[in-house]
Amino acid sequence: MSQQRTTAEWRALDAAHHVHPFSDAHSLNRQGARVMTRADGIYLWDSDGNKIIDGMAGLWCVNIGYGRHDMTAAASRQMDELPFYNTFFKTTHPAVVELSALLAKVAPEGFNHVFYTNSGSESVDTMIRMVRRYWDVAGKPSKKTLIGRWNGYHGSTMGGASLGGMDYMHAQGGLPIPDMAHIEQPWWYKFGKDMSRDEFGLLAAGWLEDRILEIGPDNVAAFVGEPIQGAGGVIIPPDTYWPEIERICRKYDVLLVADEVICGFGRTGEWFGQQRFGFRPDIFTAAKGLTSGYLPMGAVFLNEKVAEGLAAGGDFNHGFTYSGHPVAAAVARANILALRDEGIIDRVRHDTGPYMQERWRQVFGQFDHVDDVRGVGLIQAFTLVKDKATRTLFPNWGETGLICRDIFFRNNLIMRACADHMVASPPLVMTRAQIDEMLGVAERCMTEFEETLLRRGLV
Ligand SMILES: Cc1ncc(COP(=O)(O)O)c(CNc2cccc(C(=O)O)c2)c1O
User: Fold this and answer.
1) Integer distance in angstroms from the first to the last C-alpha of the chain?
2) What keywords is this UniProt entry annotated with (predicted)?
């Protein structure tokens, strides 16, 4: 491990020199960051020796769990052989070729072409440029507007943050960039109360057709969505939603893009979320579970139509120094071989996923200020509500979620507050016994949370 210091020493140096993402620097530096020092399986340890259940798999990404020596061996071997070479200027290397061939095997049928990036955001920005280039080459340059969803999350780059529907991100940096549009999210609990979920799914998909007709089909390049909106609070669409979205995209010749950065590589119990929700995109973006977070890497998967459409245009003038980085590629390949050959995704689909969903509903369904308890595979959530009977949300949307999250954090269980949704996305290797361990802690936290609400007069 790096140089041994006390927690206080690390915190002081961190506050003096490290600018954190998505943080209020003054507030964080007054409080001091939690120093995570090591991890194994589903557990983290901090610099004070606390053992922590990582209910978020890092940031939705450590699908294979921590402490995998096959991953470090793959990285070390590749570093010794070829630590870097680029894939520009008519060059390639075995690591990225082997990864690409493997990805073509595990990807849904028809996705045989992969472009590499360093992150989900770069994958999304790459997709934006590809989509617009595709229509240029097709002789329809006016088709350049991309439609996303409010409360969708597609990263922090200019394109990704613009395509995303987080208004607090649009407020910083002059976003959105031109030719970005949004429709409402398929949040049944808030927007579809008096409808069945299936009815609401068709209604919510219809919002896309309305928007396409408003903008003009000749101006719309693509619709982009996460199979399940992750950072937006695990908004799981009704089963009728995505097939209807696909039908509408085909009707108006609009490319369909799935952002699989969270749902990809086993999170829903299928390799990809598109398979769980029964739709076939033209392009999908990935990152996170591609390497299980052991090294940064992202990817953009193209079907034949899009790959050929781009190729017909000759040079595609886009790429990154580290596109197809050899060590990241070697680690990604080791990760995917393990997910496949150890049956990790199969187990999520048939065993630990259904078990988690059953236990998650049992535990959280019992609390007065929890509703819309939901989940698929090993991604799940619930919503904190002021009044369950009338489905009334708490005022100051988001504040109650932070109270709840901090109780979990203090009890050494990491879950994520996405506004007033509490979400979990643990490593896919979590066992039934570890699910019970996690939910035992969570149940005690929720009892403390309910007491806190009463004590503070919030209910
Ligand atoms: C669907 C989706 N698309 C793109 C990105 C961007 O990926 P990068 O971060 O690798 O550029 C994401 C990332 N998702 C993400 C990233 C950081 C924090 C949280 C959170 O829920 O707190 C979620 C994502 O969830």
Assistant:
1) 46
2) Aminotransferase, Pyridoxal phosphate, Transferase
Q: Which amino acid residue places its CA nearest to atom 4 of ligand 1?
A: 154
CA 180, CA 176: separation in Å to the nearest integer? Answer: 7
Helix pair 197-215, 241-251: axis angle to 10 deg = 20
Ligand 1, atom 22: closest residue by C-alpha: 231
Residue 120 Cβ contacting ligand 1 at under 6 Å = yes
Taking the C-alpha atoms of residue 60 and residue 3, their distance in angstroms, rounded to an integer, is: 28
Rounded distance between C-alpha atoms, residue 36 and residue 14, angstroms: 12
Contacting residues for 22 by C-beta, under 8 A, at least 6 apart: none
CATH class of the domain comprising 34-67+343-455 = alpha beta
Cβ(154) – ligand 1 distance below 6 Å: yes
Q: Is 445 in the pocket of ligand 1 (CB under 6 A)?
A: no
Q: Which helix (H) or strand (E) holds 53?
A: strand 51-54
Residue 231 CA, ligand 1 centroid: distance in Å: 7
CB-CB contact of 63 with 428 (8 Å): yes
Q: How far is the CA of 304 from the centre of ligand 1 (A)?
A: 27
Check if 419 has its Cβ closer than 6 Å to any atom of ligand 1.
no
Q: Do domains 34-67+343-455 and 70-341 have the same CATH topology?
A: no
Tell me the CB-side half-sphere exposure of residue 281, using CA atoms within 13 A: 28
Q: Is the ipTM of this complex over 0.85?
A: yes
Pocket flag, ligand 1, residue 284 (CB < 6 Å): no
Residue 87 and residue 282 in contact, taking contact as beta carbons nearer than 8 Å: no
Long-range CB contact pairs, 4-13, < 8 A, 24+: 6/47, 7/32, 7/35, 7/46, 7/47, 7/48, 8/32, 10/35, 10/47, 11/35
Domain residues of the chain, as ranges? Answer: 34-67+343-455, 70-341
Of ligand 1's listed atoms, the one at least distance from the Cα of 122 is 11
How far apart are the C-alpha atoms of 18 and 32, rounded to whole Å?
Answer: 11
Q: Is 126 helix (H, G, I), strand (E, B) or coil?
A: helix
Q: Are 159 and 125 in contact (CB under 8 A)?
A: yes
What's the CATH number for 70-341? 3.40.640.10
Regions of the chain short of the pLDDT cut 70: 1-2
- Give the model confidence (pLDDT) of 102-155 as tens digits: 999 999 999 999 999 999 999 999 999 999 999 999 999 999 999 999 999 999
Ligand 1 pocket check for 121: Cβ under 6 Å: yes
